[in-house]
């Protein structure tokens, strides 16, 4: 009986010590901001434009141009596949898609679910934990793990309609993997090759993405421009 009590006490001490060693999620986010240019610069991001190229085995490559205005809660995304451009836009409480049909563009409303996904994407593209508390998300430190031979800090970020598992390099503070779950689909993105933008924040220029539906890795090359003037014509229906 005494031996059993000793074992239980030892396990309790181990669990307590492990819990105490967990770094608060906000501290992990702060390390990321520090490593990528500083919180003041991140707080100053009002708009950004992103150019991306996508490539995958046995699939046609395509490009995407994305423009986001955070104060207006607006996002415009144009996907060009084999010289055909499909345009997705959310502005305020509205959302629509423009589909090329012959020489004209057919305009259709996006569903509420599609609009919500794009509103999440406004932040996901840069960092899903930006202003997370005011967006109704809860962050919890899961613990320290090993990923590809590197020690990482694992944070779970959860809110209405989405859950994120975020993995930060414990030494550099950089986000190296994001696992997002939406509508039963899990998408894992590995991030690397951080490059400093002209604005001053660093951003991963290479991503490898795979989801639980297609199960085919997609390589994404990215370049970001921050706080450049937003072309209002992009957000006209």
Describe it:
With 237 residues, the chain is an alpha+beta fold. It is 20% helix and 50% strand. It has 4 helices and 13 strands. It has a 13-stranded antiparallel sheet with strand order 6-5-4-3-2-1-13-12-11-10-9-8-7, covered by helices on one side. Strand 9 and strand 10 form a beta hairpin. The radius of gyration is 21 Å and the shape is globular.
Number of discrete helical segments = 4
Number of strands: 13
Inertia-based shape: globular
Distance between the termini: 75 Å
- The unreliable regions are 7-20
Decide which structural class fits the backbone. Answer: alpha+beta
Write the element-wise H/E pattern from the N-terminal end onward.
HHHEEEEEEHEEEEEEE
Q: Helical amount among residues, as a percent range? A: 10-25%
Strand order of the largest sheet: 6-5-4-3-2-1-13-12-11-10-9-8-7
Our Rg estimate from Cα atoms comes to 21 Å
Q: What's the rounded overall pLDDT mean?
A: 90
Largest sheet: 13 strands, antiparallel
Features:
237 residues; alpha+beta; 4 helices; 13 strands
Walk me through the topology:
Elements: H1 2-20, H2 25-35, H3 39-43, E1 47-56, E2 59-69, E3 74-81, E4 84-91, E5 94-101, E6 104-109, H4 112-124, E7 138-147, E8 150-159, E9 162-169, E10 175-182, E11 185-196, E12 202-211, E13 218-226
Antiparallel strand pairs: 1-2, 1-13, 2-3, 3-4, 4-5, 5-6, 7-8, 8-9, 9-10, 10-11, 11-12, 12-13
């Amino acid at each position: 009986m005494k031996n059993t009590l000793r074992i239980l006490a030892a396990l309790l001490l181990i669990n307590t010590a492990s819990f105490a060693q967990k770094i608060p999620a906000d501290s992990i986010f702060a390390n990321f901001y520090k490593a990528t240019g500083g919180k003041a610069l991140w707080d100053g991001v009002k708009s950004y434009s992103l150019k991306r190229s996508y490539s995958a085995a046995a699939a046609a490559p395509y490009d995407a141009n994305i423009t986001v205005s955070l104060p207006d809660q607006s996002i415009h995304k144009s996907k060009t596949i084999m010289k055909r451009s499909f345009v997705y836009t959310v502005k305020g409480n509205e959302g629509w898609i423009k589909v090329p049909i012959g020489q004209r563009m057919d305009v259709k409303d996006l569903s509420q679910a599609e609009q919500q996904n794009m509103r999440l994407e406004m932040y996901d593209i840069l960092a899903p934990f930006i202003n997370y508390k005011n967006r109704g998300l809860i962050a919890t430190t899961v613990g320290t793990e090993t990923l590809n031979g590197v020690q990482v800090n694992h944070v779970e970020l959860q809110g209405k309609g989405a859950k994120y598992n975020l993995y930060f390099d414990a030494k550099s503070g950089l986000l190296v993997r994001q696992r997002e779950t939406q509508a039963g689909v899990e998408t894992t993105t590995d991030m690397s090759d951080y490059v400093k933008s002209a604005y001053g924040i660093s951003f991963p220029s290479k991503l490898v993405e795979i989801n639980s539906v297609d199960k085919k890795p997609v390589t994404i090359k990215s370049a970001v421009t921050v706080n450049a003037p937003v072309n209002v014509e992009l957000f006209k229906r």
